[in-house]
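Customer escalation, tier 2.

The customer says the design service returned an amino acid string that "doesn't look like it belongs to this structure." They asked us to rerun it and document both sides in this ticket. The original structure tokens are below, unchanged.
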């Protein structure tokens, strides 16, 4: 469940951007079965960071953690011609900042993490990966049940219907959106115009 509301950003646009980016981060795609099978023996050994090149050769990176090692990992990725980088622990804001700053522009690179719960960073940092052409995938995809929308903000709340319709539009058909206080719901696959739910 993801909760969003009028206090998430300074403007409605900020709220919608943050809500969509958070949902994007939580709904990262899972790796293929082939990639999972390729990683399995290394995961069983507790690998912290692995580089797979375009020939499928695997090189473990000799790091106990990648936290604080964004520059080192970026240099190793470039040296090894990495196409897929597996990171076994947390992916932090500092790592993403250093990694994207040092890594030259690349055509194909994907970073694989365990699941979205290891992303210890704002959703905007995930967007920074995407803008650099770096795909981010997970071993285990999360399932977001719904988004709840609350129009409250100080000093003046948003008009509930306008706020709800805007959030439902930003979320699209990915998950249901509910405003339980004002009785509204938008369900995937239905017409985009959210309807009032009967009590």
């Amino acid at each position: 469940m993801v909760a969003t509301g009028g206090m998430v950003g300074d403007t409605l646009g900020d709220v919608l951007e943050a809500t969509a980016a958070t949902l994007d981060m939580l709904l990262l795609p899972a790796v293929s079965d082939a990639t999972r099978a390729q990683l399995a023996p290394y995961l069983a050994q507790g690998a912290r960071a692995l580089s797979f090149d375009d020939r499928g050769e695997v090189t473990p990176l000799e790091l106990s953690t990648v936290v604080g090692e964004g520059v080192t990992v970026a240099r190793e990725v470039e040296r090894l011609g990495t196409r897929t980088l597996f990171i076994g622990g947390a992916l932090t804001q500092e790592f993403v900042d250093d990694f994207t700053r040092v890594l030259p522009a690349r055509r194909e690179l994907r970073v694989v993490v365990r699941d979205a719960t290891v992303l210890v960073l704002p959703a905007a940092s995930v967007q920074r990966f995407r803008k650099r052409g770096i795909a981010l995938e997970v071993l285990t995809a999360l399932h977001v049940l719904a988004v709840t929308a609350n129009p409250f903000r100080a000093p003046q709340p948003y008009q509930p219907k306008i706020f709800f319709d805007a959030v439902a539009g930003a979320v699209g058909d990915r998950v249901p959106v509910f405003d339980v206080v004002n009785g509204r719901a938008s369900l995937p696959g239905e017409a985009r115009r959210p309807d009032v739910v009967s009590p």
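Tier 2 assessment: The sequence is consistent with the input. The helical segments are 12-26, 33-44, 70-80, 93-102, 123-131, 160-171. The chain has two domains: 2-24+144-196, 29-138. Sent an explanation to the customer and offered a walkthrough call.
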